[in-house]
Amino acid sequence: MSGRKRILTVFGTRPEAIKLFPLVHALEADPRFESRVCVSGQHRSMLDQVLEIASIAPDHDLDLMRPDQSLDALTAELLTGLGKIFDAERPDWVVVQGDTATAMTAAIAAYYRKIPVAHVEAGLRSGNIHHPWPEEVNRKIIGTIAALHCAPTETSAAALRRENVDPAAVHVTGNTVIDALHWITAKIAERPELADGLAHLERRFAGKRIVGVTSHRRENFGEGMAAIADAIRRLAGRNDLAMIFPVHLNPNVRAVMNERLGGLDNVALIEPLDYPHFARLLDLATLMLTDSGGVQEEAPALGKPVLVMRETTERPEGVEAGTAKLVGTDADRIVAEAERLLDDPAAYAAMARAHNPFGDGRSAARIVGLLATT
Ligand code: UD1
Ligand code: UDP
Questions:
Q1: What does the alpha-carbon distance between residue 296 and residue 307 come to, in Å, rounded to a whole number?
Q2: To test ligand 1's pocket by mutation, which of 10, 11, 42, 121 has the most ligand atoms within 8 angstroms of CB?
Q3: Which atom number of ligand 1 is nearest to the Cα of residue 46?
Q4: Residue 2 — very low, low, confident or very high, per pLDDT cuts 50/70/90?
Q5: Residue 41 near ligand 1, beta carbon < 6 Å
Q6: pLDDT tens, position by position, 293-335
Q7: Is the C-beta atom of 13 inside 6 A of ligand 1?
Q8: Which of 168, 171, 231, 344 is deepest in the core (most CB within 10 A)?
Q9: Residues 112-162: pLDDT tens digits?
Q10: What percent of the chain has pLDDT above 70?
Q11: What is the pLDDT of residue 1?
């Protein structure tokens, strides 16, 4: 059918897939669009877990993940690979999300072809190009190129305006991660068996409080990761706690976590969870310890306190709302902050309030509206 806008949505990693599947679903359901999907395969199994649960069959898959891939080799392969697909597809819009190498190179490849770019989760800024690294620069590059900036909050929209982005191109849409969380929660309610795979850990750790842990940031490799592992080891010395830690597949993360935490009674180092099971872990957890971006948005929405093991955050909204706290990567500080929350009911209650500054679950619909009219 002629006259439909052809939208090519491009992603490659687990968090992009989670935050873009609600938009892909909305585009597919809307007759004004021809929805096309290109995955880079920057992640493989962690991406495929999301594609499967969201029933997305990509039109293109570059399948370019390599073990322990370097940023330059990854970037070079992405740029040439995506360029060829854009030449073949000739979309009216390229949609990217966030700040990964896939998103940044897709924006550049689209710019080289004068294809307009819509940026989902636009305007996040830490103000430090080394934290998070390389994401702060990736998203600034995308922000320079994009014709449509879908900012999750007023704070992120203001950051773009401060960088002289045309205010007419900046829209506060909320973050699609909340759409994704609502969708997966409804799916689990319909089919509880999708998330029942943690039952053995629930039995093993019966009577203990669960702390959920994730960690993968490149800028934490080396000293930072070692300190995070040490903090978890020390917390695991308490009889009333158990850690459930789905370990990212990046070999730089796995090596240090296996070496320092393998074999401990109170620590379950497990494979990355698919999205329904991660939602279940968020539900079980008393507290989340993380350096992830997405988890900083999901946990507050569910009223779970988050200690953010990073030096800076581009998501100040959770901290301002009182449900997230920046604790850095110093082991003493992580242990002290976690113990304060665990041992002081008033401190815990003050953080454990469901608060949702990141969206209302209708972000994808707003973005579709903008794509239809821009
Ligand atoms: C990437 C993103 C980061 C995002 C994170 C989410 C960049 C530069 N980094 O970081 O912004 O926060 O994803 O998780 O874009 N691996 C597997 N299987 C998988 C996924 C990864 O084996 O399914 C291993 C591979 O050895 C791969 C390595 O992890 O080379 C690193 O993957 P990569 O995407 O380069 O970096 P991440 O640290 O995952
Ligand atoms: N997540 C998941 N399984 C896991 C760990 C995380 O499905 O084992 C989800 C989580 O719910 C969130 C996203 O992955 O939506 C976060 O991805 P990640 O931490 O890898 O990247 P970041 O958000 O830091 O870019």
A1: 9
A2: 42
A3: 23
A4: low
A5: no
A6: 999 999 999 999 999 999 899 999 999 989 999 999 999 999 9
A7: yes
A8: 231
A9: 999 999 999 999 999 999 999 999 999 999 999 999 999 999 999 999 999
A10: 99
A11: 45
C-alpha 179/C-alpha 323 separation (Å) is 20
Q: Is the pTM of this model over 0.85?
A: yes
CB 364 within 8 A of CB 264: no
Place of tokens 């409804």: 186
Cβ of 216 below 6 Å from ligand 1: yes
Residue (of 298, 302, 280, 304) closest to 201 by Cα position: 280
Report CA-CA distances (Å) from 83 to 116, 151, 287, 364: 14, 26, 43, 26
Sequence-distant (6+) residues with CB within 8 A of 262 are 269
Domains of the chain, start order: 5-175+360-373 (3.40.50.2000), 193-352 (3.40.50.2000)
Which residue minimizes the CA distance to atom 19 of ligand 2? 292
Q: How far is CA 240 from CA 82, 89, 139, 210, in A?
A: 50, 56, 41, 9
The DSSP bridge pattern shows strands 287-290 and 267-270 to be unpaired
Tokens 């370097």 belong to residue: 70
